[in-house]
Amino acid sequence: MKHYDVIIIGGGITGAGCARDCALRGLKVLLLERFDLTNGATGRNHGLLHSGARYAVTDAEAAAECIRENMTLRKIAAHCVEETEGLFITLPEDDLNYQKKFIESCRNAGINAEAIDPKDAIRMEPSVNPSLIGAVKVPDGAVDPFRLTIYNAYDAQLHGAEVLTYHEVTSFIKDDSGRIVGVKALSHIDKKEKEFYATITVNAGGIWGSLLAKKAGATVNMFPAKGALLIFGHRVNNVVINRCRKPADADILVPGDTICLIGTTSTRIPIEECDHVRVTPEEADLLYNESIKLAPSLAQTRILRGYAGVRPLVASDDDPSGRSISRGIVCLDHETRDGIPGLITITGGKLMTYRLMAEMATDMVCQKLGNTQKCTTATTPLVGSESIKDSAKKADRSSQKAAWGRHGSNISQIAHDNAFDNALACECEVVSVGEVNYSIDKLGAKNIVNVRRRTRLGMGTCQGEVCACRAAGLIAKANGCADKAKEDLASFLQERWKGMYPVTWGNTVREAQFTSYIYQGLCGVDAYYKNNQDEHPVLEKEK
Q: Do 453 and 149 contact (CB within 8 A), yes or no?
């Protein structure tokens, strides 16, 4: 019956950002997520550190918000950000006249957009299509949405917040006056329903926020816009490459860590399909063909996998594709809007504007609670980014250097004192045993998918072919349960296959077949998946 000041529903970047902001202001915070952190749209985007240039022509307000938050994140979340810079290129089939309007709109929004000679663009990014006829330089970059979210949640915990993953809110608790005073949540871990109480509840459920609002008796109309993306097995570009044209399918190529990815499409889907989005072979063909126009070398680059997410857009009946819907932030006080006190919804926006969204929601929470503390998240470094230069000096092994890129100054907490801790669990992404154990002990990893999101294990060329088994062993050791780890291993391999399925040609077919030989033919792991998927529906639902 512990009472919190605020319960936040949703473990995406918005919910994690809200939890950190609330905790920094001294509130008693509980964050509830039905599966793992970043399970929704946060973990299914292109990881672009938006300059806002993409929206400058069509959505000036969102563009201005993006560039402000872009510059803020470079300062407070350095270990989650890569300052690559960006190019908007005009190809022969594009309208070169659009470039002038584009630059003017960028500058009006506060974005430093500079037209450069196409030859200089090629020197800046050698992989770019050499037939370009125009180029504009903008302050784009790359951001890892997994570590950004997980370290916001971890930072919140360090300031007193509680974070419960695999707890799905099933209903709201109201008092006699109709005020929301708490929630009921089903634990997917022990299958028990639990009650949690708070003065204010914040709905940060993304596209699923409309379903949560409905449970409370409110209506929030959302536009479920599916976006598909492809991941290439090599990082062919070091600068973000965009098409300088009106927003369309497959017009952004983003470098990130060891890979690059092309995105996105935009297709409206029913809300009922948001838990089961897949990339179709047709979408994979479209993305592949358009990617070659941005960087021709991608024609000889292996595609690792495809994946899709659903944008949390506020609905409009005038745009069937969702392209022209504003990416602006929507913060709703359901007490004044719907006569339901105790509930706030924060939605819309983008990954890039999460901190601003959290500030707006937390301001509203504090106003209702009489808390006068001001927001400090724009100036307070995220845990891991406090002394990033000093921590870099301590990285003397390849695994430590890779871990430093993922965890910043937190590498001091990763064990590396013996040969076992320094052994590689994942060669593709250079993840040590010590780093895997750190993700379990400190970052809340409960299964292999959780470890992947916190370390990149299994995200490299082999897609978990070798490292998945090692990770399962480490999880079994940490939890003292080998059978659960075997079930988890089977589920993880099935999840990897679902992303490989839309792009099964060439080496990807060979890789998938070899993985099948090892785990099905040699180890018989598929029996654990078949025998336990009915007993563990959450594994299927999460994937």
A: no
Could you report the per-residue pLDDT of 394-419, keeping only the tens digit for each? 556 777 888 888 999 999 899 988 99
Q: CB neighbours of 530 closer than 8 A, spacing ≥ 6? A: none
Q: 116 to each of 99, 241, 364, how far by Cα in Å?
A: 11, 14, 44
Are the beta carbons of 340 and 218 closer than 8 angstroms?
yes
**Cα 233 versus chain centre, distance:** 19
Q: Which DSSP state fits 170?
A: E
CB 6 within 8 Å of CB 365: yes
Encode burial over 76-93: b for 16+ CB neighbours within 10 A, e otherwise: bbbbbbbebbbbbbbbee
Identify which of 425, 478, 485, 477 has the alpha carbon closest to the alpha carbon of residue 455: 425
Rounded to an integer, what distance in angstroms lies between the CA atom of residue 342 and that of residue 321?
Answer: 34
Write the DSSP symbol of residue 250. Answer: T
DSSP E strands in 20-71: the ranges are: 29-32, 48-49
3-state secondary structure of 342: coil
93-131: per-residue pLDDT in tens? Answer: 999 999 999 999 999 999 999 999 999 999 999 999 999
Whose CA is closest to 520, among 443, 461, 465?
465
* Contact call for residues 189 and 224 (beta carbons, < 8 A): no
CB-count exposure of residue 335 (10 Å: 0-12, 13-18, 19+): middle
SS3 217: coil
Can you give the pTM of this predicted structure? 0.92
